[in-house]
Design brief:
By secondary structure, this protein is α/β, with parallel strands linked by helices. The chain folds into three domains: 36 residues, no CATH class; 56 residues, no CATH class; 200 residues, Rossmann fold (3-Layer(aba) Sandwich), CATH 3.40.50.300. The strands form two sheets. Strands 3, 4, 5, 6, 7, 8 and 9 form a seven-stranded mixed β-sheet that branches. A two-stranded antiparallel sheet has the order 1-2. It is globular. The chain starts with a helix and ends with a helix. The N terminus is likely disordered.
Length: 307
């Protein structure tokens, strides 16, 4: 039996031949020829990635070719499944991102040009935004600027004043149309979030600002005695409300801005002891989280220079 018939009989692949132990029946010249023809070139890391990507692209192009019957059958099954789901749950329940045109998220200005540039155009529509920081850092001022910008564009804005500290004079000085601003001063956290959710589902409000998460006191805590420990009430309230409001805001195109304060963990010696109130649900549902810190105070002499 010659060497060629031996390869055919045992189904040897040239790439699997071990050259350190040559076969006795294989001539040295043939071994050298096979080793030269099947030896792999040495690539660098970048070249290996490029060669592998080119190979994967060729394989994908072959598998996704229209001539492949398996690919055609899979596409037909996919279209049938999508049509069945859309007929059962409504049109647009399942769609391709390219045909839906939902890849781009619309934005509106926040009132601060540099912040809009950092956010890629401004605050996103139909999303949840959290603005947190220490006291007197400008959280409410930034929210009022955003409300003023929405009103300039002809939209409707709402302020849920859970802290009961709304100042119409200051808001008007920032450009807010106070007469057309929708204001709510709820009695408890459940009332505040329920009103905000109903206004969001109406589809007529473009921006709802909740000021603040720390002031969303649960009803059980208000009705209870002072000093009673109510563990996790506010966190459960926020988690339940955000599960509903996130989907409603996306469908209605209404932006929800939550203002939050910073608390400090007790007994933390390593790491950052700062934490935001209301649990961790807001961190998960928020598309944008803005941390605001004061860097200094403007003195009266500097105010005259700015004027």
């Amino acid at each position: 039996m010659n060497f060629v018939s031996q390869l055919k009989t045992h189904h040897y692949s040239p790439s699997r031949i071990h050259y350190d132990r040559p076969s006795p029946s294989c001539p040295h010249s043939v071994q050298h020829l096979l080793k030269f023809s099947t030896s792999r070139p040495k690539y660098s890391a970048k070249q290996s990635i490029r060669v592998r990507s080119e190979f994967d692209a060729k394989v994908n192009a072959f598998l996704h070719s229209d001539s492949d019957s398996r690919f055609v059958d899979r596409q037909k099954a996919l279209e049938a499944a999508m049509g069945d789901i859309n007929s059962s749950f409504g049109k647009g329940s399942v769609t391709r991102l390219g045909s839906a045109g939902g890849a781009l998220v619309e934005t509106f200005p926040s009132g601060i040009l540099t912040l809009d540039l950092a956010l890629g155009g401004g605050l996103p529509k139909g999303r949840i935004v959290e603005i947190y920081g220490p006291e007197s850092s400008g959280k409410t001022t930034l929210a009022l600027h955003a409300i003023a910008e929405v009103q300039k564009l002809g939209g409707n804005a709402m302020l849920v004043d859970a802290e009961h500290a709304f100042d119409p004079t200051y808001s008007k000085a920032l450009g807010v149309d106070v007469e057309n601003l929708i204001v709510c001063q709820p009695d408890n956290g459940e009332m505040a979030l329920e009103i905000a959710d109903r206004m969001c589902r109406s589809g007529a409000v473009d921006l709802i600002c909740i000021d603040s998460v720390s002031a969303l006191t649960p009803r059980a805590e208000i009705e209870g005695e002072i000093g009673m420990q109510q563990i996790g009430l506010q966190a459960r309230l926020m988690s339940q409300a955000l599960r509903k409001m996130s989907g409603n805001a996306s469908k209605a195109g209404c932006t929800l801005i939550f203002l939050n304060q910073i608390r400090y963990k007790i007994g933390v010696y390593y790491g950052n002891p700062e934490v935001t109130s209301g649990g961790i649900a807001l961190k998960f549902f928020a598309s944008v989280r803005l941390e605001i810190r004061p860097i200094g105070k403007i003195k009266p002499k500097e105010m005259k220079k700015l004027d």
